[in-house]
Amino acid sequence: MANPLFDSLFGKHAGKSQVFLQLADGQTITYADFLRMAAQYANALTKFGLVPGDRLAVQIAKSPQALAVYAACAQAGVIFLPLNTAYTPEEVSYFVENSGARLVLCDQAKHAGMAPVAKACGAELATMNADGSGTFADVAAGMPDSFATVDRTLDDLAAFLYTSGTTGRSKGAMLTQGNLLSNAETLVSEWQFTKDDVLLHALPIFHTHGLFVASNIILLTGGQMIFLPAFDVDQIIENLPKSTSLMGVPTFYTRLLGDPRFTKELVAHMRLFVSGSAPLLAETHVQFEKLTGLRILERYGMTETNMNTSNPYSGERRAGTVGFPLPGVELKITDSKTGETLPQGEIGEIEVRGPNVFKGYWQMPEKTAEELREDGFFITGDLGQIDDDGYVHIVGRNKDMIISGGYNIYPKEIELLLDEEENVLESAVIGVPHPDFGETVVAILVPAPTGQPDVDAIKANIATSLARFKHPQKMIIMPELPRNTMGKVQKKALRDQFKDLFAG
User: What is the four-CA torsion angle of 231, 232, 234, 237, rounded to 10 degrees?
Assistant: First the structure.
């Protein structure tokens, strides 16, 4: 037997002196050094009593050591559970309890808050700091720098990723070795990554985008990463001339465009900019291409599936779309009530099937049955349509759809119009309770640096393009939209904030 994920991503690099990670302080880590560290960590996991199939929960800062913990889990057959570093101990307690994690890694600064959580859940607690120090590293330091890789199959679980839980309890998506490996292999091919690539990595590694897309692609090819602890404009600009590619969220690109140092000359060596995790404004596309001559590549993925679609590497990268289904991924648009496939061009629920689709939700058979059909299609909860050229458009989340007076309203349609209006940087359209219509439309507008939006003028302008029932009843100006750590607009927070707008 073998261990497909470890062998393909990590094991094949054993003994290689090539640089794997370039750090912000100028230090470098070779593949050989990284793998020796990972082997020590795998031995440490065994020392803590973990066996194949056990879960390791980690809430630690991004670092080479944190990435090596992921490698160690793959080598030891332990299921890797990364957690957002912003979660409170109360939030973490749910994930630890639900997953049955036997060991929790946290920063020393969080030890006091996490100790009662670990104790209550029957888990051990160890520390790992941003510099790699801590009690876990202390145990690992005394361990051999080789480890007998545990046999695993493509169907064995490799990781749990918990959904954001904006509409209820977070669900633990069970991802197999095959899920992660197949997606990485497909993206390497589609985005034409090679061992010569240098990826500028500024994403967190507790999320699909930064860990299972960016890192896995480079590991698969044997390329390099400039591994930054977080997004910092100064560090990005300093390192862009040394890079060939960057993966980011829309905020990365808007901040770069706002810096006078970001020029065509600075990115002359770059071949690829990828954006995901949240929609990219069409204006950002236009500005970026005008300045650099390069077009950002948008793709579409999620916790349960990794990546599903991508705009083409060679071909038209169409703004406002997420491109085509990836090779091996089937995508269809269905009626959310009947499940029937809808004709091309109609808006409905996006369903996907392929080797990238997860195994189900941990200890939630009912939720799994609700969202994962017997034929393997996953009901994403996203609303979309496929245009005449086959490009997939994301219209919004099913839960974000507004039903006003019996009419279905898709926020994205209104947002696209609002974003085009003078002095509007971006918008968010939500449904709020209304005594007559059940729900009604409210638009949140963020002013552009050029000035304040003229609400009356905007209302008049969009009136010609929208049916009356789609018109926002109110337009509210806010300095910014609430977002999560990956840049996604938190519409639930907006709905909660304005739920009483029409009360009484």
Answer: 10
Instruction: Please tell me the distance from the alpha carbon of residue 122 to that of residue 112, in angstroms, as a whole number.
Output: 16
Looking at the DSSP bridge assignments, the partners of residue 301 are 307
Could you say which of 3.40.630.10, 3.30.300.30, 1.10.10.10, 3.30.530.20 is the CATH number of the domain covering 401-497? 3.30.300.30
Nearest C-alpha neighbor of 78 from the set 108, 107, 58, 98: 58
> How many C-beta atoms surround the C-beta of residue 276 within 10 A?
25
CATH number attached to the domain at 4-152: 3.40.50.12780
> What is the 3-class SS of 346-380, one letter each residue?
CCEEEEEECCCCCCEECCCHHHHHHHECCCCCEEE
pLDDT digits (tens, 9 = 90+) for 126-163: 999 999 999 999 999 999 999 999 999 999 999 999 98
Contacts of 342 (CB under 8 A, 6+ apart): 333, 334, 335, 348
* pTM of the full structure: 0.84
Residue 277 pLDDT class (50, 70, 90 cuts) = confident
- 3-state SS, residue 231: coil
Q: ∠450-452-454 over CA atoms, to 5°?
A: 125
β-pairing, 402-404 with 378-386?
unpaired
pLDDT band with cut points at 50, 70 and 90 for residue 1: low
| Closest C-alpha among 487, 485, 458 to residue 472 | 458
Which residues fall within 8 angstroms of residue 27, CB to CB, at 6 or more apart?
none
Alpha-carbon gap, residue 110 to 156, rounded angstroms: 32
pLDDT surpassing 70 at residue 266? yes
pLDDT tens by residue, 379-397: 998 899 999 999 999 987 7
Domain ranges of the chain: 4-152, 401-497
CA distance linking residue 229 with residue 210, whole number of Å: 12
Q: What is the structure's pLDDT at 166?
A: 42
Return the exposure string of 37-66: e unless at least 16 CB atoms fall within 10 Å of the residue's CB, then b: bbbbbbbbbbebebeeebbbbbbbbbbbbb
